[in-house]
TrEMBL record:
The keyword Aminoacyl-tRNA synthetase does not apply. InterPro entries: B-phosphoglucomutase_hydrolase, Beta-PGM, Beta-PGM-like, HAD-like_sf, HAD-SF_hydro_IA, HAD_sf, PGP-like_dom2. It holds the Pfam family Hydrolase. It comes from Spirosoma flavum. Belongs to the HAD-like hydrolase superfamily. CbbY/CbbZ/Gph/YieH family. This is Beta-phosphoglucomutase. It catalyses: beta-D-glucose 1-phosphate = beta-D-glucose 6-phosphate. Its EC number is 5.4.2.6. Its cofactor is Mg(2+). The keyword Phosphoprotein applies. It is an enzyme of class 5 (isomerase). It comes from the Bacteria.
Length: 217
């Protein structure tokens, strides 16, 4: 079945907001009396906000009621939004513009599949809202990755089947989500980490659309 659509994660694929997430989560951890490292932060990639908070609280040995956790998640998000609101098109990762140009020339449909509720804001800041035919973010899903919901909804909105989709992901949870959704998955990052991916490259800058389509045949 020929590929008709490319579905992209946002963080680590189009832009790299991991440093902003880390700064905000670390500030929260510090206020709770402990610290988290950048290495620890890798565990939070592709994971929803509340799940990330649970992982951090477990790291600090802290148990809190849901209302308090909601307050902390909102506080972290406020700090994060302060940081991402300063983003511009300069924050688009190398190779993204060229790759998307190839995507359009190939006549492929595009969707964003991100668990972030801030994805529309980030796309607006970097000027890429119109690069996507469909945008599925954290406000449109009930399950975070590795559940495939975000990508299955993207395929449905594009009116294509999962088998006609290629997913681009940098996180282990995201790669698993794409595979569970029955899609061809391109992992962006380390082959040692993204072992479930069908194809692995350092970034979009290292790929061409023609190469991806050929590999996914």
């Amino acid at each position: 079945m020929p590929i008709k659509a490319f579905l992209f994660d946002l963080d680590g694929v189009i832009v790299d907001t991991a440093i902003y997430h880390y700064q905000a989560w670390r500030r929260l951890a510090n206020e709770l009396g402990f610290d988290i490292s950048e290495q620890f932060n890798e565990r939070l990639k592709g994971v929803s906000r509340m799940e990330s908070l649970d992982i951090i609280l477990a790291q600090g040995g802290i148990t809190l009621p849901d209302d308090k956790k909601n307050d902390l998640a909102a506080q972290k998000n406020g700090w994060y939004l302060e940081l991402v609101s300063r983003m511009t098109s300069d924050d688009i990762l190398p190779g993204v513009a060229t790759f998307f140009s190839q995507v359009r020339k190939a006549g492929l449909k595009t969707a964003l599949g991100s668990v972030s509720k801030n994805a529309p804001l980030i796309l607006e800041r970097i000027g890429m809202t119109n690069a996507f035919d469909a945008i599925i973010d954290g406000t449109k899903i009930s399950k975070g990755k590795p559940d495939p919901e975000v990508f299955l909804k993207g395929a449905a909105e594009l009116e294509v089947s999962p088998a006609e989709c290629v997913v681009f992901e940098d996180a282990v949870a995201g790669v698993e989500a794409g595979k569970r959704g029955g899609m061809f998955v391109v992992g962006l990052g380390s082959p040692d980490m993204l072992i479930q991916a069908d194809l692995v490259a350092p970034s979009l800058a290292a790929l061409t659309v023609e190469e991806v389509l050929k590999k996914s045949e």
